[in-house]
Every structure is written in structure tokens, then in C-alpha cells.
Amino acid sequence: MEFRYLGNSGLKVSEITYGNWLTHGSQVENDTATACVKAAIEAGITTFDTADVYANTAAETVLGQALKGERRQSVEIFTKVFGPTGPKGPNDTGLSRKHILESIDGSLQRLQTDYVDLYQAHRYDHETPLEETMQAFADIVRHGKALYIGVSEWTASQLRDGAAIAKQVGVQLISNQPQYNALWRVIEGEVVPTSKELGISQIVWSPIAQGALTGKYLPGQQPPEGTRATDDKGGANMIRRWLSDDVLTRVQNLKPIAGELDISLAQLAVAWVLQNDNVASAIIGASRPEQVFENVKATGIKIPAELMARIDDVLGDAIERDPARTADSSPKTRES
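The structure corresponding to this sequence follows.
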């Protein structure tokens, strides 16, 4: 495993982060989830990402139990706040001071830890003053409940505003967690240049496009049983956009490139995002321990420039690059 600094901070994270969105507390039984976490640790992963909204807090509980007994100082635990949790009342969502301060205590209890290494604003809250949000985060850091602060799916202008206010209240934004993969490159035009300027790294989710970049989905054929595309608990909805015959044919055409590197398509996809020097870590999920061991092999792989160019040529106009798509991720009004 290789490690990178997270933003302009002294915190190092593993190039591969284990995340439990759509798996723990939902798709995967708890004993299998624990086995996947143990596999991650065995493979050298030290960084673990979750959120209170995943499985309506159950994912945090599963991760906390799975990490029980591990030396706390040897792992980095990340979680997030924004989405509706609990009974989903009017104050059970968003980035208000009330919701943030109550949510961190709930997350710490479920994760069975005194602090998280990184506490992230899961989305941008258009209905709460940014000053209120950043002051609440600063107070959490000063109380030792979080060591660092980050965000997820913020636009370049939101990152700039957030970083400025964070500095005023004595903390620093060090990370952003966006979707990023060879098919979804919307952060490259604005978010990445702004992040480099501000000392912010990306911790990217969906590096294999929900599994579409693994090659297991074939054009003209029904998705294999037991895959994310057949999951009725949310997985199928997330991957549907990648399952056109055009995209799946292009993915199959990446196989010769992966073959030249002697790696799988999944490993190629994860290694691809790690070529971006603003990416500190790529988040992988797993429903079986074997998936962890396979995907972690992407760490340290260097893809030559000519192969990176060939990937661009193969994927062609299937690539989404519009920077405006980042703004679509944050609801203009809070869900309840």
C-alpha cells in the first residue's frame, strides 16, 4: 500500500480507502461486512469512510463493530453529515449547528470512538449560512471530536467560500469527496484546479463507476444475478446510467489496455483515478473480501501517458465533463 498526504495537512491516508456506502447495514450481512473490513486491513488499507445517512446510521454501527479491537491510532476513520437520519424530522438533515453538533455525537457512539479523523459536509446546504456551518465544524475540532474537516461534492466556488470562512474561524478544509472515474470527469475543469490552489485533496468515490468499468456487464445482455445492477435497495438506480450498450462496448474495448499492464479492468479503473495528483485516495466498496484484495492491487500502478491517451480515445464522447454537473449533487432545499 502507498500513502498520500490529505490536502495541505500532515495527515497521510492510504491510496485506497475502504467505504461502506450501499453495502454495510443494507446489501451485505454483518459478518460478511466485518470480513471485508478485516480483508482491507490485511491488504494494507488504513483509511475507512462512511456516513451517518448510509443505511440510516446502520453502516456506521457495522463499521464501528468491525474495527473494534484495532489500534485506533493505526486507522483513519472518516464520516459525514448532511442527509436525513433518524425519524427525518425538520432538524434531522442539513448543516445547521443543531444538526451537526447532534450528529457528531451520534456518529462517535456508533463508531465506538472518541474522535473521527475527518468529518465531512456530505453536501452543500443552500439553506444554512455557511458561517454557521463552519463555526460548528470549528467547535467540533476544538472539542477534539474531529481532527480535520472536509466536504463532499462541493463546486469550485463553494470550496473557495468554505475555505475562506474556515480560515477565519481557525480551521482548514483539507478534502473534497466527489464522484470521479474515467467516465465521470466533471471535477477536472474547475474543482481540481481550485482545490490545488486551496490545498484541498480529492477522496473520490465510484472509481469503477458502480462496477460498470469492471467489464462484468456486457452489451446486449441482462446484468448477472447478484450484481449491483440487480439490487433493488438502491444499487440498480445508481448504476443504470452506465449500462447503455454504447458505454458497455467501450468498456470492453479497454481490455487490451488492461492486458498490456497485466491488470484487470477494475484495477485499471482504480489506477486511472490515482494518476491524478490531486486525488489522495480512491474509495472502494466490497460485498466479498476477494474484491478488496483484487482492487487494492491498483495501488502504486503507473499508467504510461500513451495508455492514458488511448483510454480517452476508447471512451470518447461517453465521458461526462460538464463542471455544472457537480452542482446537481446538492439539493436546493433540504429533504425531510
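The CA atoms of residues 184 and 247 lie 12 Å apart.
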